[in-house]
Amino acid sequence: MRDVAIVAFAQSPHRRRTDELSEVDLLMPVLHEVLGATGLKANEIGFTCSGSADYLAGRAFSFTMALDGVGAHPPISESHVEMDGAWALYEAWVKIMTGEADTALVYSYGKSSPGEVRDVLTRQLDPYYLAPLWPDSVSLAALQAQALIDAGDTDEAALASIAARSRTDATANPYAQLTGDVPAGDHLVHPLRTGDCPPIGDGAAAVILAAGDTARALCARPAWIRGIDHRIEAHSLGVRDLTDSPSTRLAAQHAGAFERPVDTAELHAPFTSQEVVLRKALGLGGDTRINPSGGALAANPIMAAGLIRLGEAAARIHRGESDRALAHATSGPCLQQNLVAVLEGESAHA
Length: 350
Hints:
This protein is α/β, with parallel strands linked by helices. 34% of the residues lie in helices and 21% in strands.
């Protein structure tokens, strides 16, 4: 087993619209920043992996255009996942663990502004029973929220407090799209109000992974990946208990999250109700700082928001603000797919 760490993280400012920017324009500054933080050049990276969705771009193999931002000549070792960038990080981690690379560049991006996100995300649903009904992502999240309220796990006031805390914490995040005092607003789909839902916006993120002494040479305090795992729920929402997330709990168990408490948790919870589910599944108490970056309620670039959770957790370790952090990413309706990673600083490792 090799020690692998996140040694650098960069993200774009998240904005409601970036009509003047292509995906390459969105990515280039982020890639330059993350490479500059380590002093590496693109041709010195052992493996490159990206995450994005052609459905957002509206054209097949759109990710190949984004490679212009990386520089594919001379030829590079490269891969892509049609998923959030957190899963691209997992692939890169596996590549380094097998010894096929010592460093990896992982990036992801999402331009949600050109289309109707609530319609686009219906393409994730079961094509026989659910997709023909066109239930959108907010309506499905509202079903989950109502199930939690009916079970006595939360109420609308508690959900509003989660939104308020997230947006307040985001005031310290210069990249956040929404910050400060954001009204709860009217019901969008009962019981969810506009403040319970994530903003629609465009953004990109990138991290660099490195192994062993290479990581120590590139970063003063690497964020070591002590464990990482991802699991998936049944595709049919009708056979799931929407008030719980067994896949998150199982992924956390295999990642070692329950071995010792974490001081920070960056949870990919686009809806306030989903934070309730995740906190219960992960057994997080009041001693753990939840989403100090503001989380997905402050900025939710689809296909990059999960990678940002990993990057934000790593950045806190880099700055010495955390010793042991948990990062979570999700994809699909109602927390269908979940990835959990445990990150530690050098002192915790020692």
